[in-house]
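Explain my protein.
***
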Amino acid sequence: MRRVLIVSCLAVSLMPALAQQSPLSLDQTVQLALTKYPSVRASLEQVSAAAAEINLARTAYLPRADLLGQVNRATRNNVFGLLLPQSVIPSVSGPVLGTNDLTSVWGSAVGVLVTWEPFDFGLRKANVQLAAAGRTRREADLSVTRLEVSTAAADAFLTLLAAQQTVSAARAGVERGRLVDQTVRARAQSGLRPGADAARADAELALAETQLARAEQAAEVARVALANFLSMPAGELTIHPGPFLGALPEIQPPPGTLATHPAAQQQQAAVEEAKDQEHVLSRLYYPRFYLQGSSYARGTGARTDGSTDGGLSGLGPNVQNWALGMTITFPALDLFSIRARKEVQLHRGLSETAQYERVLQDLQGQLDRAQARYRGAVRIADSTPVQLEAARTAERQASARYNSGLGNIIEVAEAQRLLTQAEIDESLARLGVWRALLAIAAAQGDLQPFLQSAAK
């Protein structure tokens, strides 16, 4: 029983490790990057903050209630005269007693003031619309971030796959070079071939091993780059090649409208936000109406004849009042500053509109370049199988000629290098078509058709 329990515990502890070691498909890689990469999470939090700003703007419709409670001990000397508004000298209410002594009394006050703006000529609504435009822009920012991260993760996936294919071709080249080196060395030692052939075979083997080392270095760098998007150790990362190394399917780049591209929608949201900001400014030069109600009570130990009650008199508020009214304010001299701010905002809006036109133009250029790369990649992929078959034939013939004594080691070395390069070119050509399709999908702003094609 104890042994069964130990085995079960080991199996449970190994399950996460085994799950981490399972190869990732392209779609899984993209989804994991969208979940793990910090910039996506940062954009999500910005969207949440923008949504909270809408709720904040809506609170302006609610009435405001201010509560006050105060207890003080102070003298009650009061004088006639003007005092400009300030926040240093406390005010004293009541008649002027003509006294100037330091006798102090208790004073207290409690009260509540409720203020509500029944109408505002659309200012609060404009502020809510501005906050909603900010949320729309943050959502567009999130879409752009998701597209950029998805594209970068997919490109890193294909880059790692290409690097692994280069490593496989380079490793095959090393194996061929090692066999040739062993054959040539045996023939040179038996006197059937000159020693120079053995030296040349050694040099070609060393060159192939150097090429393999460089390919392995590039593959490791590509693995680290992809692991960075997935927030996982590079040593635990393995990928599934999927359909990328097989025959190319009949894929036509889907049509797309550049106006729906996340970058275009992001800039369009900036244009709308600028218009909403200008609308808010147009609502500022209106009177503000505040309906107010107050109830309060005060207490004091001082009398109007200059005497005091003494003791604890005044600690409790015992004189009550209430009030209802409306306050109207109007920023009469703000007209000039508001006009200037509206002019500034007008030019900012025109700038955002010009930026939107530039974004559309840049996206069109990006799409045209991606489509040109796709056409070229298809042509290359059509020619590389012929190149590979010819290189294999040349390598077999060169080896046969050398073994029969009709050829030399230079022909064999060149044929092997040509074969290795043809194998690399043939595998990278197929991946080149997929990468061109990825570029087209990114230029159109939607990776889902590409990911669906890659999942078949």
Strands lie at 64-75, 104-116, 288-300, 319-329. The chain has a mean pLDDT of 83.
